[in-house]
From TrEMBL:
GO cellular component: membrane
Gene: fbcH
Protein name (database record): Cytochrome c1
Gene Ontology MF term list: electron transfer activity; heme binding; metal ion binding
Cofactor(s) for this UniProt protein: heme c
Length: 254
């Protein structure tokens, strides 16, 4: 009997109290109110534009957003003229010149977002060996999605005293394993928002995550609208069928 008790105690001490595995070190991110999460939710246009500004001024120095073209920004409420200006601020590879050398030209609306590094090796070399993932799907690709990415961006603190940090790594409460190669990317007042919103870290994180959620699923609003149409049709169809049934039975009962 004692042996069983001792066995359970040892098991509890070694496994049960969360002394080590990666899964146990995962900290649940707090839940946020996102404009796009309810069944009829849409993206908050102000947050989208501010989030794009944060991506453009901060994140895009390390993270690509490969599947987007500048012209897709019209979904965010930008006009064609504004998109032309945004695209032209980036340099993209142009045609070879007369001597066969590569050239650069200003971006056009139909160009894909410019990548910060020519290849993965160069990206790793600049980031302590770690690869800054393409952000096209990053919100969808992580458990807890938008809540996780926001918690990650705001979750940097000093490591606990007994934790040995590897060289060039930063402590983050929400990153699995807690050691991340991305330095805290946001600091208060880092971007000057075009609409005058105060740029706290919380605000910038909220906005950039809204933008990345749109980037991961630009057709979300269309999908939800379609859902509403289908449900309305089904509701109408049900009512019609009910009326037909009542009439049929009324005639039969006579
Ligand atoms: C100086 C370069 C740099 C900047 C700027 C930067 N990141 Fe990162 N980011 C990285 C690196 C490197 C990694 C990979 C970290 C690792 O695997 O340890 C990363 C990883 C991530 C991840 C994935 C975390 C995971 O769970 O795997 C997300 C999400 C992310 N960054 C979001 C952002 C956002 C949003 C911004 C802008 C506000 C940003 N990053 C700015 C370098 C950067």
């Amino acid at each position: 009997m004692n042996k069983i008790f001792l066995g359970i105690l040892v098991y509890w001490l070694t496994c049960g109290t969360g002394t080590g595995t990666k899964a146990e070190q995962e900290v649940q991110p707090p839940h946020n109110q996102w404009s796009f999460e309810s069944p009829l939710g849409t993206f908050d246009r102000g947050a989208l534009q501010r989030g794009f500004q944060v991506y453009q001024e901060v994140c895009s120095t390390c993270h690509a957003l490969d599947h987007l073209r500048y012209e897709n920004l019209k979904d965010l409420g930008y006009t064609e003229a504004q998109i032309k200006v945004i695209a032209s601020q980036h340099e993209v590879p142009g045609p070879l010149d007369d001597e066969g050398n590569p050239t650069k030209r200003p971006g056009k609306p139909e160009d894909h977002f410019v990548k910060p590094f020519p290849n993965e090796k160069a990206a790793r070399a600049a980031n302590n060996g770690a690869y800054p993932p393409d952000q096209s799907l990053v919100v969808k690709a992580r458990k807890h999605e938008a809540d996780y990415v926001k918690a990650l961006l705001t979750g940097y603190t000093n490591p606990p005293q007994d934790m040995k940090m590897a060289n060039g790594m930063y402590y983050n409460t929400y990153f699995p394993g807690h050691q991340i190669a991305m330095a805290p990317p946001l600091s208060p007042g880092q971007v000057k928002y075009a609409d005058g919103t105060p740029s706290t870290v919380e605000q910038m994180a909220h906005d950039v995550v809204t933008f990345l959620a749109w980037a991961a699923e630009p057709t979300l609003e269309e999908r939800k609208r379609m859902g509403v149409k289908v449900l309305s049709f089904l509701a109408l169809f049900t009512i019609m069928m009910y009326i037909v049934m009542r009439r049929t039975w009324r005639n039969l009962k006579k």
